[in-house]
């Protein structure tokens, strides 16, 4: 079981994100470095479609979001955390 965080971008995300990006990136690096954050990325149109991240545990996802500068400073308008059953396709 993995946990997917989906972010919904606030208005003008491209203008708002750069100010908070260094602190957001530091948090990403911290969670990735300890193995809690597995993947993260934006969709083709971040303003319309937002972004997502995959975490190893619900607790890590909740903790990340609770202190994320993008959430705390309104770069994202909202988020969801959902359980995801990863299925590995045999080679």
Automatic annotation (TrEMBL):
Pfam families: YCII (PF03795). Signal peptide: none annotated. InterPro entries: Dimeric_a/b-barrel, Sec-metab_biosynth-assoc, YCII. Residues 1-85 form the YCII-related domain. Belongs to the YciI family. This is YCII-related domain-containing protein. It comes from Cryptosporangium phraense.
């Amino acid at each position: 079981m993995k946990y997917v965080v989906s972010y919904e971008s606030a208005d003008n995300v491209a203008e708002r994100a750069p100010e908070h990006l260094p602190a957001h990136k530091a948090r990403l690096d911290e969670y990735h470095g300890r193995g809690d954050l597995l993947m993260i990325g934006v969709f083709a149109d971040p303003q319309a479609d937002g972004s997502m991240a995959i975490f190893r545990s619900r607790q890590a996802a909740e903790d990340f979001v609770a202190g994320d500068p993008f959430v705390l400073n309104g770069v994202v308008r909202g988020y969801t955390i959902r359980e995801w059953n990863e299925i590995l396709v045999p080679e």
